[in-house]
């Protein structure tokens, strides 16, 4: 995560599952806030250092990929929506955990 920094706080996570033509898709939506961060692109990435957790919980880090080297002194709100194609290894996922620098949030998967 060399060019990315954690969002400071996760404020909301929502997850819904959709079955289409034999595939299972997860829509993960996360919101968060940060202060004194540089502008960038929010994304959810698989954790480099994964905590030991339940195999039915998929984990992501909520990060910002920096676009500038100049820090700004204001409060930024972030929102990211990602669609994930689930394979057979993730068939039993019932929740998604999104981690930020200072907190984390877990949302149950809702069928859509």
Q: SSE order in H/E notation?
A: EEEEEEEE
Q: Roughly how many Å is the radius of gyration?
A: 15 Å
Proportion of residues in helical segments: under 10%
Q: Any low-confidence stretches, pLDDT <50, length ≥5?
A: none
For the secondary structure, the number of strands is: 8
Give the mean pLDDT. 85
Distance between the termini: 32 Å
Major β-sheet annotation: 8 strands, mixed
Briefly note the structural class of the backbone.
mainly beta
Percentage of residues in strands: over 45%
Shape verdict: elongated
How do the helices and strands line up, and which of them pair or pack?
Blueprint: E1 4-6, E2 9-20, E3 23-35, E4 40-45, E5 57-66, E6 75-86, E7 95-99, E8 104-111
Parallel strand pairs: 2-8, 5-7
Antiparallel strand pairs: 1-5, 2-3, 3-6, 4-5, 7-8
Describe this structure in words.
The protein is mostly beta strands. It is built from no helices and eight strands. Strands 1, 2, 3, 4, 5, 6, 7 and 8 form an eight-stranded mixed sheet that branches.
In short:
The protein has no helices and eight strands. The chain is mainly β.
Key attributes of the depicted protein:
single chain, 112 residues, mainly beta, 8 strands, elongated, 62% strand, 8-stranded mixed β-sheet
């Amino acid at each position: 995560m060399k060019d990315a920094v954690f969002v400071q706080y996760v404020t909301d996570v929502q997850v819904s599952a959709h079955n289409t033509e034999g595939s299972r898709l997860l829509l993960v939506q996360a919101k968060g806030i940060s202060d004194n961060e540089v502008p960038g692109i929010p994304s959810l990435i698989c954790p480099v250092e994964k905590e030991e957790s339940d195999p039915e919980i998929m984990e992501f880090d909520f990060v910002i990929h920096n676009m500038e080297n100049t820090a700004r002194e204001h409060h930024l709100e972030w929102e990211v929506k990602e669609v994930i194609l689930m394979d057979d290894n993730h068939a039993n996922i019932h929740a998604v955990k999104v981690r930020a620098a200072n907190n984390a949030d877990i949302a149950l998967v809702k069928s859509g």
